[in-house]
Automatic annotation (TrEMBL):
Compartment(s) where it occurs, according to its Swiss-Prot or TrEMBL record: Cell membrane; Membrane
Keyword terms of this UniProt record: Cell membrane, Membrane, Protein transport, Translocation, Transmembrane, Transmembrane helix, Transport
Record protein name field: Protein translocase subunit SecY
Superkingdom of the organism of origin: Bacteria
Gene designation: secY
Primary localization class, coarse: membrane
């Protein structure tokens, strides 16, 4: 306890760090306030978007912090920017001109950011138009008659696009002048906003059960803590590959001649495989629901609309493993790493520089990705098992899946930055032994968007 109090005192005594934390908290409050401001032309008393809590829309609503189901000015949240960022990231891998732009340093990064913002506007305008159609179909009476028709569509598209761009600006300000990755923190805050209500509801329901209901609730909390510990190990897990650097004489100084380590992440793909797998699993039920609503709730298709069924979880787990390898292959380039090591006179002991080094790094990455993929698949299906055990569905979503993985990863990233600020000023870190390694360390840097 004394160590914690001393660490907090050290954090508060650093003026720059204190300002960054206060600015981050202030911008988060602005975001949460805006998530409750209803769109113009909507009567909140007649609004009913119960369907927004399920399926793909439920995932969207979770990332938006409940703004989607409340029809707020931040209803689309930060997700259009995330989609645009992922698209640009894939373009830098697949398109040579974008790959060249990425290697141009700061000027190339600015160009990519400009293209990302432009693509964000296009994606947001398209999603805003779809959201207007969704409002009209699900909660038409909530739209005030004077705002109906073309004017409501135009005003809503403009407001939602402006809201997403403002949230994007908030995220960039948190990243530049605050603490942590702003985009990730905004998503995390939206997810965490549902936790208190979920805890209260679960506690109330278990208390009303009687006959050991409170004991069951305590066991659920213990199980949740165990899962969080396992996720911390998964996020921070690395395989250290020894790298030697040849001695060089630069001026009157000797450079190199030391052994360092290349940290390869066990879970280099981050949360992206789970998001991709969830999106794929929602497609069959959604298509069938549009074409033949009666068949979506019976037989084979019911298994793909109910995430507690064994078939759903098996297929979902396999998809997570497949997408883990797929996304890791996209963001991890062993050839580039081998070339950079060769350029800096670095080599792995016993391995020839160049292609042999790239093959060696790739083989290690393939081996450590397998247990990482299986662990990620287990994390993905845990909410389904929790719901099958009669745990409240909202609270069950915190037992794994996208929600918990994002929360753990973002908290580790933020704590890592705070610890770096403390160590830079010759204070002790947040831990008495070892150092915090967030998702952005090592090969995980490519997935720091989420």
């Amino acid at each position: 306890m004394k160590k914690i109090v001393e660490t907090i005192r050290n954090i508060w005594s650093i003026e720059d760090l204190r300002k960054r934390i206060l600015l981050t908290l202030g911008l988060i409050l602005v975001y949460r306030f805006g998530s409750y401001v209803i769109l113009p032309g909507i009567d909140p008393n007649r609004l009913s978007l119960a369907g927004a809590q399920k399926g793909l829309l439920g995932l969207f609503d979770m990332f938006a912090g409940g703004s989607f189901s409340r029809a707020s000015i931040f209803a689309l949240g930060i997700m259009p920017y995330i989609s645009a960022s992922i698209a640009m990231q894939l373009l830098t891998i697949a398109v040579p001109s974008f790959a060249k732009m990425q290697k141009e340093g700061e000027s190339g990064r600015k160009k990519i950011n400009q293209y990302t913002r432009l693509l964000t506007v296009i994606v947001t305008a398209f999603q805003a138009s779809a959201y207007v159609a969704y409002l009209r179909s699900q909660s038409g009476p909530a739209i005030i008659a004077e705002f109906g028709g073309f004017f409501f569509w135009l005003s809503t598209v403009i407001v939602l696009t402006s809201g997403t761009l403002f949230v994007m600006w908030l995220g960039e300000k948190i990243t530049d002048k605050g603490i942590g990755n702003g985009t990730s923190i905004i998503i995390e805050i939206g997810i965490l906003a549902r936790l208190p209500q979920a805890l209260i509801y679960e506690f109330t329901s278990k208390s009303n059960m009687g006959g050991g209901g409170l004991l069951i609730f305590l066991l659920e909390i213990v199980f949740l803590v165990v899962i969080i510990i396992g996720l911390v190990l998964l996020v921070q897990g690395t395989r250290k590959v020894p790298v030697n650097y040849a001695k060089r004489i630069v001026g009157n100084r000797q450079v190199g001649g030391v052994r360092q380590f290349l940290p390869l992440k066990v879970n280099a793909a981050g949360v992206m495989p789970i998001i991709f797998a969830q999106a794929i699993m929602f497609i069959p039920a959604t298509l069938v629901g549009f074409t033949n609503p009666d068949s979506a709730s019976s037989g084979f298709m019911r298994s793909f609309s109910d995430y507690t069924t064994p078939l759903y979880n098996v297929v979902y787990g396999v998809l997570v493993i497949v997408f883990t390898y797929f996304y890791t292959a996209l963001i991890f380039n062993p050839t580039q790493m081998a070339d950079e090591m060769k350029r800096n006179n670095g080599f792995i002991p016993g391995i020839k520089p160049g292609k042999s080094t790239a093959d060696y790094i790739g083989a290690i990455m393939d081996r450590i990705t397998l247990p990482g993929a299986f662990c990620l698949a287990i994390v993905g299906v845990l909410p389904g098992f929790a719901s099958a055990l009669k745990i409240n569905s909202v609270f069950a979503s915190f037992f794994g899946g996208t929600s918990l993985l994002i929360i753990v990863g973002v908290i580790l990233d933020t704590l890592q930055q705070i610890e770096s600020q403390l160590l830079m000023r010759h204070y002790d870190g947040l831990m008495s032994k070892g150092r915090i390694a967030g998702r952005t360390a090592g090969t995980g840097a490519g997935v720091s968007t989420i």
